[in-house]
Amino acid sequence: MRNLADNLLTLLAALIIATVIWVIAVRIDDPIETRTYVIPVMTANLPASRILVENTVESVQITVDGPTSLMTDVAANDFVAIADLSEIVADISNIEIQIQFVNDLIDPEELSISVPIPTQTQVTVDRLITRDISVQLIVAGSASAGYAIGQGTTDPATIQLTGPSQRVNAIAEARVTVVLDNARESFNAPRRPIFYDQSGNVASVSGLTPSAEQVQAIVPIEQLDGVQAVPIVVNWTGLPATGYRLTNLTVSPDFVQVSGTPEQINNLGAIQTQTIDITDLTESFTQQVALDLPDGIELVEVTPFVVTAEIEPLLSTEILRVEPVIRGLADTLTVTLDVETVRLTLFGPLPIVDTLTEQDIRVTLDLFGLEPGTHEVVPAVDIFAEEIEVRSILPTVVTVFITDVVTSTAGITTTLPITATTPATNTLQLAPGTIALSSGDGPGPPLFAALPPRRVALAERWWLL
Question: How many CB atoms lie within 10 A of CB 273?
């Protein structure tokens, strides 16, 4: 019997030792891993008659231990922290936070999940109520003379607010404001209401649910009996100065409220101003005028009336030909142009265009730094008159021929041999410092080859004389 007991003890010890060895072996092969997670706290099961006002704990921290082979598949979103409000009684309560493991692929028994830190959250709840809040319409400003402001309304007349009873009951009313500025027509437009508390201060409705974000504000504007708005017509005479025109004639204000008998009002189409004379005017002007009121018609409100007349010069086009001015040509050079004048198309006010002279326009060819040869130069145009626009320049490019000037310090005479058969000799004698040419039967090319083309032609004409 004693041997049996000893054998059992030996067997039990062997089993324990084997288990320990197995656990150690498993731990060595698949060690325990520890992780820490932060889990957001959610509330659940709040009674329908209550509303959550505040939850003091937004998240909790938990520690999870488990084999490395399992922990590789565990994430923070596998855990849910829940504050169960199903049994809440007081408006302010401390609720235990429960951790739930929601990964169906892992047995939670194989994990060691710590209690959350903190373990509780304090929640505040209130009764959920809905209350009608009246909307007050406030009208500021005034209607135009001859009109009256009617009784304003809003649609809807009340707004329902839903939320915690404490906050909803603090709201006294909602207000919308309409500002009129000499209104002649009824006002009908949406407006966003502003809420006020019992003390008349603006109250926030954040977190509350209103039945409408906007209300329709309606303010009727009614015309008084015997009063009518009629247009104003400017009465004018004369014509502007020659070369000018009247482009616009306006009056401000362009309507006026008048009163009279119903028959007079119905027959009144417009009110004219006193006559404005624009004879020989050359510029715009502004002038205060009086109205020419028919008998029995009176102004509801006296106000100044201002007439503005816009007078502008007529626009005209003029074509001029201007001889270009040479600038920058060296003293040792001479120039020939392919054109004698440049054609300009000018545009501007007729009175100015008609008075343009050659002194008001200059066309310049700048030859600074140009060597002998053929060049193309863009003409520059200067207008010494205001409001004149150059519409076109023809030609756009002028061809210039630049050559050297042939000079001498003494008189030079070139004489051809004269035979007995030549009865006479024609001679062109120039001033000292120039070239003297003479010939017998006629001009020969060698005599003029050294001269520019224009000078050759001139010498030939003189020689033929």
Answer: 18
Q: Is the model more confident about 215 or about 429?
A: 215
94 and 33 in a single domain? The answer is yes
Tell me which residue range forms the domain holding 244: 229-312
Contacts of 220 by beta carbon, 8 Å cutoff, 6+ apart:
149, 150, 151, 152, 186
Number of domains in the chain: 5
* Residue 176: exposure state from Cβ atoms within 10 A (0-12, 13-18, ≥19): buried
12 and 117 part of one domain: yes
pLDDT at 345: 92
Cα angle value 147/148/150 (rounded, 5°): 140
Total-model pTM: 0.45
Cis, peptide link before residue 395, omega less than 30° from 0: yes
**pLDDT tens string 102-132:** 988 888 888 999 999 999 999 999 999 999 9
Indicate the pairing of strand 325-327 with strand 361-366: parallel
Quote the percentage of the chain above a pLDDT of 90. 52
Q: Are residues 306 and 418 in the same domain?
A: no
Indicate whether 132 and 247 sit together in one domain: no
- Say how many C-beta atoms besides its own lie within 10 A of residue 182's C-beta: 12
